[in-house]
């Protein structure tokens, strides 16, 4: 499936590096999300954007900085990460943010970026 | 926040019906229940969602009792390709705050 793409698929970075993860959705959706998936832990919601506006920051450390320049693109800027930040970072999108009118919680996920911090 | 609890793993054989139960004792009035499937090295894929009673689509059924403190995903006649991790998710929309609580997932292994 190519609805939601993420680049790079794999990234190895040192703790002093600065890198960015990119997500692009080709579905015409208005909401985009960043998730973190660590080994043996549930998926953790990090950020939520709706129409390029951030609507949720789930207590994420400032070394993770999201950017949503338009409704099709989402970035996650990384700097001075720690080894415990090594994980699979997943991007997702949905038509709209779920609410009582849409009643639709379906999100479309990308394949993820496997990040290793050394 | 409603926390979800699922069995860590399950084994089944091809052709059998598989039922995976998720517990969410603190589910709120506004919460919907959603299930996702995840294969290795892929992002999760939506399976089904529901609020109460029973929902059925072309791949699964979702049973939710009246108290909504649990839900059961039912996969009819599984095949080897259904081997994956299945996540129960309880969505909360409260005063504009969006929190999606994924469970730890159930690793389903379908045997020939």
Question: What's a concise summary of this model?
Answer:
Chain A is an all-beta fold and 118 residues long.
Question: What brief labels describe this structure?
Answer:
heterodimer, A: 118 residues, four-stranded antiparallel beta sheet, B: 112 residues, mainly beta, six-stranded mixed beta sheet, globular
Task: Report on the architecture of this protein.
The complex is a heterodimer of chains A (118) and B (112). With 118 residues, chain A is mainly β. Chain A has strands at 4-7, 10-13, 18-25, 31-37, 44-50, 53-57, 64-70, 73-79, 87-94, 108-109, 113-117. Chain A is built from no helices and eleven strands. In chain A, strands 2, 4, 5, 6, 9, 10 and 11 form a seven-stranded mixed beta sheet that branches. A four-stranded antiparallel beta sheet of chain A has the order 1-3-8-7, with no helix packed on it. In chain A, strand 7 and strand 8 (73-79) form a beta hairpin. The relative contact order of chain A is 0.32. Chain B has 112 residues and is an all-beta fold. Chain B is built from no helices and ten strands.
Helix and strand content put the structural class of chain A at: mainly beta
Major β-sheet of chain B, in short? 6 strands, mixed
Mean pLDDT value of chain A: 89
Give the number of DSSP strands of chain A.
11
Give the end-to-end Cα distance of chain A, rounded to a whole number of Å: 31 Å
Radius of gyration of chain A: 14 Å
Number of helices of chain B: 0
Q: Which structural class should the secondary elements of chain B be placed in?
A: mainly beta
What secondary-structure arrangement, pairings included, does this model have?
The complex is a heterodimer of chains A (118) and B (112).
Chain A: E1 4-7, E2 10-13, E3 18-25, E4 31-37, E5 44-50, E6 53-57, E7 64-70, E8 73-79, E9 87-94, E10 108-109, E11 113-117
Parallel strand pairs in A: 2-11
Antiparallel strand pairs in A: 1-3, 3-8, 4-5, 4-9, 5-6, 7-8, 9-10, 9-11
Chain B: E1 9-13, E2 18-23, E3 32-38, E4 45-50, E5 53-56, E6 61-64, E7 70-75, E8 84-94, E9 97-102, E10 106-111
Parallel strand pairs in B: 1-10
Antiparallel strand pairs in B: 2-7, 3-4, 3-8, 5-6, 6-7, 8-9, 8-10
């Amino acid at each position: 499936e190519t609805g939601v793409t993420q680049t790079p698929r794999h990234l190895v970075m040192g703790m002093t590096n600065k890198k960015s993860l990119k997500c692009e959705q080709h579905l015409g959706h208005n909401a985009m999300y960043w998730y973190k998936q660590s080994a043996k832990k549930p998926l953790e919601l990090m950020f939520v954007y709706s129409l390029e506006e951030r609507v949720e920051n789930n207590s994420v450390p400032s070394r993770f900085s999201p950017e949503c320049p338009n409704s099709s693109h989402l970035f996650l800027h990384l700097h001075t990460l720690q080894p415990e930040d090594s994980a699979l970072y997943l991007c997702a999108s949905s038509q709209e943010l779920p609410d009582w009118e849409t009643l639709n919680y379906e999100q479309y996920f990308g394949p993820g970026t496997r990040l290793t911090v050394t | 926040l409603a926390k979800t609890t699922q069995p860590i793993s399950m084994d089944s054989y091809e052709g059998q019906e598989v039922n995976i139960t998720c517990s969410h004792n603190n589910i709120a009035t506004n919460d919907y229940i959603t299930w996702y499937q995840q294969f290795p090295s892929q992002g999760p894929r939506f399976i089904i969602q529901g609020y109460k009673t029973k929902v059925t689509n072309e791949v699964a059924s979702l049973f939710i009792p009246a108290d909504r403190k649990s839900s059961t995903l039912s996969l009819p006649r599984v095949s080897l390709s259904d081997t994956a991790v299945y996540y129960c998710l309880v969505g909360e929309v409260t005063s504009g705050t969006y929190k999606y609580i994924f469970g730890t997932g159930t690793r389903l292994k379908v045997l020939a």
